[in-house]
Amino acid sequence: MTDPPGTNGVPDTPETADVTGTAGLTTGAVARRLGVSPTTLRSWDRRYGLGPALRSRGRHRRWSPRDVAMVEEMCRLAAAGAPPAEAARVARLAHGAEPGAPAGAGSADPSVTPSPREGARRGGAGGGLPLGDVRQECRGLARAAVRLDAPELGGRLLDAVVQHGLVTAWEDVMVPTLRAVGRKWESSGDRYVEVEHLLSWQISTALRRAPLVLPRPAQPPSGSDLVVLACAPGEQHSLPLEALDAALEEAGVPTRMLGAAVPVEALLACVRRTGPAAVVLWAQARSTASLPLARHVAGLEWGPAGARRRPVLLPTGPGWDRRAAGDFPRCTSLGAAVRTLVGLSGQPGLPGQTG
Known about the structure:
single chain; alpha/beta; Multidrug-efflux Transporter Regulator, Chain: A, Domain 2; Methyltransferase, Methionine Synthase (B12-binding Domains), Chain A, domain 1; Rossmann fold; 9 strands
């Protein structure tokens, strides 16, 4: 008995058909790969002649590797702020296609025929994530994230850090893009989870690499006051705390970063052993914010009799509402937290910031 059409006896599905066509990928497969809609790809084809130049005998549009490379280049240039028409022109030239000529001209495949193209018309490239009124860098990041273009994401994130500094890059570029991805995920039936994970990982990587691309701060004096950073027990969301750690390093404040879900005894032991000027306790959710733990940490003492010290406890994160934080001071932004901690540690701080 012969196998049914498909691959290794598996019947053709829309997914397997995407990669088994004679001339390459279908429009739907390319759209998923780039993170744009099929309608956007058809619009680029009509407006700029930037689409599949070949059709199979069944009149199905198929994208060759060069076709895909050109639209990927188009996405990168448009995300960088180039006008769509100019981005399309450069993408075609970069991949050996004459302006206005079919991308697949010259193919010797007898099973396909060139598809007609309309004259290029000026127009937009289509949207992806619900960003609203944000910096241009956010739009480039969003498009790269939806395409799952990790190298592009990494480069853009580090560029934002170098250009704006940690605090502004986090508050005005990274956070708005993360929120847009979250809204897209919530409104699309649990799709785009992979986009959120990739973006979060790339942001975390950029925060750890930031000291390599930023000017090195002056070394703090030996024995200067440091800051302990820890997520509350059970709290796994540490990305904002990583941003604070990187921003404090940029400001020259020594830190001890403990990361996610720190056990109570480990946190207490670190505070006793290091004698910090301040302890930052992060809680993303109300369920992980513990006022008794905050009071216990704030009550720890060390040092000789008559000169004993206690840390300043700074609850941070949306889990610490007014009720959860009690009478502790709260910081509602990364910039406010950095200014507060710079003052507590006695460091000169970032340019333009005061304690």
